[in-house]
Write the structure tokens for this entry.
Amino acid sequence: MMKKGNLYYPAEEAKKKAWVKDKKIYSDALKDPVKFWEKLAKELFWFSPWKKGFEHKPPHFKWFLGGKTNITSNIFENNLAGWEKIKQKTALIWVPEPNNEKTRKVTYDALFKEVQKCANYLKKLGVKKGDRVGIYLPIIPEIVVAMLALARIGAVHCVVFSAFSPDALRIRLQDTGAKVLITADNYYRKGKIIDLEAQAREGVKQTKVKKVILIKRGRNNPWQKEKDFCPPRSMDSEDLQFILYTSGSTGKPKGCMHVCGGYLVQAYWTGKWIFDFHPQDIFWCTSDPGWITGHTYAIYSPLLNGIATLIYEGALDWPEPNKWAKIIDKHKVTIFYTAPTAIRMFKRYGGDVLSDNKFNYLRILGSVGEPIDESSWIWYFEKVGRKKCPILDTWWQTETGGILISSLPGLGPFRPAFTGLPFPGIKVGILDEKGLPALREGNLVILAPFAPGLLRGIYKDEERYMKTYWSQYPKGTYFTSDAALWGKDGLVRILGRVDDVIKVAGHRLATGELEEAVNSHPDITECAVIGIPDEIKGELPFVFAIYSGKRVKEEIEKEIIDLVRKKIGPIASPQKVFLVGDLPKTRSGKIMRRILKDIWLGKKLGDLSTLANPGSVNKLEDAIGNFKKSL
Ligand code: PRX
């Protein structure tokens, strides 16, 4: 890497190897983005070609209309890399958490057979095209098999993160109407065995699930006896590929609908160009497949590109703080993709932790999920990347299906804390409240023709789809809910969410979701949850709840924490619960969450005269001040 001012450029050697070397690609693609994406799509395998590239009837849009394909055909028998060439290659490297358990390597051929067996098993159970099937699995090879098997037969996978609670699982299963759930008996996390089966049995209560497929970790699968041949189902470009739930402003999670054609094209090409996948690469994306990053970059994208993808069951710092670094060295990982929260944790453990590790094979590093601060970027670049690897700070969302903003490794430029340039063929804008190009910072939007992989809807909730993404600006402008600014070199910097979504250790949560959980406590009727900055986790949820009863406060606080863990999961666990007499409100009764955050941050509060109860502020200042002193 070469440094010029505060920009970094790829070294000549990296440039030579990269798939994209000429920056003309950006201007060419933008001349006619639809044509550009069609050209890319043509390289993939289709049973029959599309009749029309793009159709826009705001807010709805479609890509590759009338085209027929199947993502698993593109991964297996019709892989662009050539099936005969990749058949015997490693597709999946599974690293279990306990150090005394063996790594499992699965070839493309073996994975294909497993997928077809599982597909036949599902078919026998009556699972058909379009059926929604829940997956509640930890990071074990079977999660990959199950997802691909469902895709093979045209069923819709709805993966629920295994650390979500039974209540959270139930809400998602109810929304999808799934009749089948695929789950496992248990898994390891930080040395503990987690009883997933018990959680699943609890979660399927009051849902339509009739059949629970139970996978026994490390033992024979239920589909072992099935035939290992199952033809792919021909899928229309706009048929549902999967539903994945994510948090929005209100309590109820949103089921993002992704479709077969566009998702396939975006997953393949963004991986190829952004991570610069080459046949010998070993890619490790640390995200759990329960999140979109895991869907697209731990599974679909590397497999579509015919390379090896590594998945690791456990915590990155368990059993030793540099477990992640040991995995990189041991398995000769060439491309490593993780979240800033993990990078900050690695950095906190300090350089000593890395002294045994060489990172000789690493050539590209990625970051995703939250803004990465400059000092963590530099640390990642120097200590892990040894000043050789470009840092791809990739911006995207559950909704976008694949990365939309990131500089390309053969072109750059890279600048700490900036995500880089929009991917070729992607048009973004930064607008002010009125919809005019912002002078400095504003709201990040995506302009037509959007991206082939952008969500097509929120499952069973058209109104919310309209309201969340398409109503802030005039017709046909996708609102991301992120604030951003342009750097003078055309690079985009993401400033964070403008709605009530917070990121806790990279996990997307809505404060409204937490508030609903807190308000379900019999003694609480009103509360506010805010995200407080944290050095490692990015943000932590703090609860302010109105309580005037006589019970011991500590007890209520504990009950509230337990409730949030029960309703959402331990990842949402509040850092602190303040039981207060009142919360600052507007005259129309709206709680002013911003004031709570400003008090915490020690900001000047400005004019409080518009509040219905300005007296509430002093008491909160005292409570927060006392708590901070006690830290
Ligand atoms: O606020 C942005 C932030 O994560 C949000 C999307 O979260 P989720 O749907 O969970 O998907 C995360 C992984 C794709 C965005 O609206 N975000 C994502 N990537 C970045 C980011 N913020 C800053 N820099 C990024 N690279």
Observations:
- The chain has a mean pLDDT of 96.
